[in-house]
Amino acid sequence: MSLKIVDLSFGYDELLFSNLDLELETNKITLLQGDNGSGKTTFCRLLSGLEKNYSGQILLDNIKISELKAKQIAEKLIYLKQEPIGNTVAATPEEDLSIWQGILEKNLSMKQQNERMQALEKMQIKELIHSPFWEMSGGQVKRAGLAAMLLYPQKYWILDEPFSGLHPEIVNILLEILLERKNNGFGALIISHKQNIFDSLFDITFRIEDRRILKNED
Ligand SMILES: Nc1ncnc2c1ncn2[C@@H]1O[C@H](COP(=O)(O)OP(=O)(O)OP(=O)(O)O)[C@@H](O)[C@H]1O
Ligand SMILES: [Mg+2]
Hints:
Elements: E1 3-11, E2 15-24, E3 29-33, H1 40-47, E4 55-60, E5 63-64, H2 70-74, E6 77-80, H3 93-104, H4 110-122, H5 138-150, E7 156-160, H6 168-183, E8 188-191, E9 204-209, E10 212-215
Parallel strand pairs: 3-8, 3-9, 6-7, 7-8
Antiparallel strand pairs: 1-2, 1-4, 4-5, 9-10
Helix pairs in contact: 3-4, 3-5, 4-5
Bound molecules: adenosine-5'-triphosphate (ATP) and magnesium ion.
């Protein structure tokens, strides 16, 4: 899978990115850092096809992302929001995962149902499977969102602050999952302020500076 950005400019009230050219190595684990408000979440939204009014091009497998349907994008990459509530219209983790699987697969097999339970178990959220999201803590919602990612290891993962608000035990489980991804050649873009703790995880580090995204050795 390839993900390229060509001469991209975008901002809401003020310009956040100006004439950006970048290719993400989608088989590597990439860290993106930047100040609060520098545009990290906006960059995730752009890559996921959620922002439309930009100039330049975002190319997913050499096709303009603006010409793809949400489902076509979701076949190749998935995005865990910084505040993951609202990834789908689901009321509970069980509904959330079945909506994900239902959107991406035609018939839900027994194997897929088992995978769903395993993902919830891995994130230690199985006992909350029928709990409404609005009764959960922020960390619990995040764990349910991460469980959904686990169902699709072969897609490119975009994770906006996946470690924040998680108990250290779950942080370690997530780190193991990401290291396994790295060893299997599956990539991810990760937004995190905690680079030093996880130094060995990241193949590439980018930072947002002066409306550009720069590689850390640059
Ligand atoms: N929907 C929106 N409408 C208007 N301005 C927005 C919108 N979303 C974000 N912004 C502005 O764009 C800028 C970048 O926001 P963004 O959420 O991408 O930052 P961030 O780097 O993810 O910050 P943080 O580290 O706090 O998560 C901010 O100044 C923010 O106020
Ligand atoms: Mg953000």
